[in-house]
Design brief:
With about 325 residues, the protein is α/β, with parallel strands linked by helices. It has helices at about 5-15, 45-60, 80-85, 100-105, 105-110, 145-150, 170-180, 190-200, 210-220, 270-280, 285-295, 305-325; strands spanning about 35-40, 65-70, 95-100, 120-130, 130-135, 160, 185-190, 205-210, 225-230, 255-265, 300. Strand 1, helix 2 (about 45-60) and strand 2 form a beta-alpha-beta unit. The two termini are about 35 Å apart.
């Protein structure tokens, strides 16, 4: 029997949630002693929040800027996106966002409400995010094939908990369900933490999110992994098979990644300075060790690499989305 407030507190405490306060004299992108706001479009306690706080800590440690992380959850990250889009283009307000907002949402939403190629501009790729399917530890199924057999029995509704509608994991599940004669109903949450509360408690039969968000509950024995996305097992989870190994190729490209973005009108010189700062922070051993231990893969790259990756991945998913007729109203 799970106690929701206590379990939610456990998840939040397991993440890096201490807000960073303004430190001593430091130079920001505008050359003064001001605050750099790193806006995250998801609730505290999730993978995006952990990445943002790790980078904020290292930026301050390097003397680059006084940094605060600001959580603006809602609309699968779009609330935070909109806040940064409307901010002053001075390099002092940035957005840390997940790849679906720039790769998949433009393909799946009828009314997106923003232009990912014109409203913000990439600054850097900051972390790759292995993703996985997860279920409550008390569920009878232990892998995706067993989950499919359980769902086909029809004793309970097959549901998929999501922190982001239109994520690669959701698209992979739609394709998987279609090919296996199975409907898996998506259940959208305002963040990974509340979604995982319901997964652990059996309120939803399966969840999909970043491995990093799930590790605290997995290590505590509250949830179990049904399989990870991609073509290789993760160093942090060597005993968990990939979904591809289990015969589900729909999830091979379902991993995600995080990038940092600035308002579109931000001057080139400011973006270049920010790019250098984030790439350097991403190479600091303390950050690499911390994020890799949390289930991330860290290989920071600059703005052009981010732009290229968006284009390549959007081209990959476009025919899949079209063939499946996937479309979201809002």
């Amino acid at each position: 029997m799970f106690h929701r407030p206590r379990l939610l507190a456990f998840i939040l405490a397991a993440a890096t949630t201490a807000c960073l306060q303004p430190g001593a004299m430091a130079q920001d992108a505008a050359g003064g002693d001001k605050l750099l706001r790193l806006v995250v479009g998801y609730a505290a306690g999730g993978a995006a929040d952990a990445v943002a706080r790790a980078y904020a800590e290292q930026l301050q440690a390097a003397g680059y800027a006084n940094v605060i992380v600001e959580n603006r959850p809602g609309a699968s990250g779009r609330v935070g996106f909109d806040a940064v889009k409307r901010s002053k283009a001075d390099g002092l307000t940035l957005y840390l966002g997940s790849s679906p907002m720039f790769v998949i949402f433009p393909l799946t939403y009828k009314k997106l409400g923003y232009d990912p190629d014109r409203d913000l501009r990439p600054v850097a790729l900051v972390a790759d995010v292995p993703t996985a399917a997860v279920a409550g530890a008390g569920q009878s199924y232990g892998g995706m094939a067993e989950y499919v057999r359980w769902a086909r029995q029809g004793r309970a509704k097959a549901t998929l908990g999501l922190a982001t509608q239109g994520s690669p994991g959701q698209l992979g599940t739609i394709e998987m369900g279609s090919q296996n004669g199975l409907e898996v109903v998506p259940v959208l949450y305002r963040g990974a933490a509340p979604m995982l509360v319901d997964v652990a408690g059996g309120e939803v039969s399966m969840g999909w999110d970043a491995v990093a968000s799930m590790l605290p509950l997995y290590n505590a024995g509250k949830v179990k992994f049904l399989g990870v996305a991609g073509s290789r097992r993760l160093p942090t989870l060597p005993d968990v098979p990939t979904l591809l190994e289990q015969g589900f190729p729909q999830y091979q490209h379902a991993a995600s990644w995080y990038g940092v973005y600035a308002p579109a009108a931000t001057p080139d010189a400011t973006v270049a300075q920010l790019e250098r700062a984030f790439v350097a922070a991403g190479k600091r051993p303390a950050l690499v060790e911390k994020l890799q231990a949390g289930g991330f893969l860290v290989d920071p790259q600059g703005a052009q690499a981010a732009k290229r990756r968006i284009g390549v991945e959007r081209a990959h998913w476009a025919p899949i989305v079209k063939a499946a007729g996937i479309s979201f109203d809002e």
